[in-house]
Amino acid sequence: MATTVQENLPPVLDSKAEQPPLFDGTIRLYTCYTCPYAQRVWITRNYKGLQDKIKLVPLNLQDRPAWYAQKVYPVNKVPALEHNGKIIGESIDLIKYVDSNFEGPSVFPDDPEKKKFGEELLSYTDTFNRDVYTSFKGDPVKQAGAAFDYLENALKKFDDGPFFLGQFSLYHSDLQMDLCDRQADIAYIPFVERFQIFLSEVYKYDITEGRPKLAAWIEELNKIDAYKQTKTDPKELVEFYKKRFQAQQ
Question: What is the superkingdom listed in this entry's lineage (predicted)?
């Protein structure tokens, strides 16, 4: 069986923290433990078994160090990857970059039909997130349903597994690993995780009701260590979303 890497997460850096060395040969993922965009790349890193190769540098986004924008990444957002003398940003781009530039199981499919559908799913992520976030300012129970229906229907596309692009078994020597083409799953689950918790807690809205494929998808992803190790504390998440969205109403 494949070995699960459990790591001790490094402490969060705030405005008082010193900057780590830059371009010293260490590969660094500048991240935030509570940011869904950064979580996408964190999951990819874990899934490919790169915990020892890519070092996490977690930032406090509410009290972020000035050196991050001044010397590391002028965009001043996470995630960002320090690799080969350059800084690369944007979560979807980084999923692709980490997948193509490092060893480990690929998160992208070889099958042309799955590859095309995977790109369609990736192109829809911003629309999905915007629609659900916008619903928080009105009536999510009525307004967010179509976005989750889209995911339910997308999960019906392939019947060879519970994920967006199905699943397959890869045999290597005497090791059998169950793998799937997971870039779309990685792109969506950080947001679905947050939406499910917030909508259930605050609006008593179960996004999986009447959506068995979505329910099974969430259940299966929660069995994957690469994702489980990145999950946000539900209580902190609800309080953060309450402050962010209900204060706007």
Answer: Eukaryota
Residue 76: Cβ-neighbour burial (10 angstroms; 0-12, 13-18, 19+)? middle
The single residue listed with the structure tokens 């193509």 is 100
Place of tokens 């320090």: 82
How much is the pLDDT for 223?
92
Question: What is the rounded distance in angstroms from the CA atom of residue 214 to the CA atom of residue 230?
Answer: 20
DSSP per-residue letters across the chain: -PPP---PPPPPB-TTSPPPPSSSS-EEEEE-TT-HHHHHHHHHHHHTT-TTTEEEEEB-TTS--HHIIIII-TT--S-EEEETTEEEE-HHHHHHHHHHHS-S--SS-SSHHHHHHHHHHHHHHHHHHHHHHHHTTS-HHHHSHHHHHHHHHHTTS--SSSSTT--EEEEETTEEEEE---HHHHHHHHHHHHHHHHHHHHH---TTTT-HHHHHHHHHHTT-HHHHTTPPPHHHHHHHHHHHHGGG-
- CA of 28: how far to CAs of 79, 133, 135, 241, in Å? 10, 30, 36, 28
- For residues 228, 229, 231, 236, the Cα torsion angle rounded to the nearest 10 degrees is 140
Global pTM?
0.91
Q: Summarize pLDDT for 194-217 with one digit per residue, the tens.
A: 999 999 999 999 999 999 999 999
Lowest-confidence range among 165-174, 178-187, 212-221?
165-174
- How many other C-beta atoms lie within 10 A of the C-beta of residue 102? 16
pLDDT for residue 160: 86
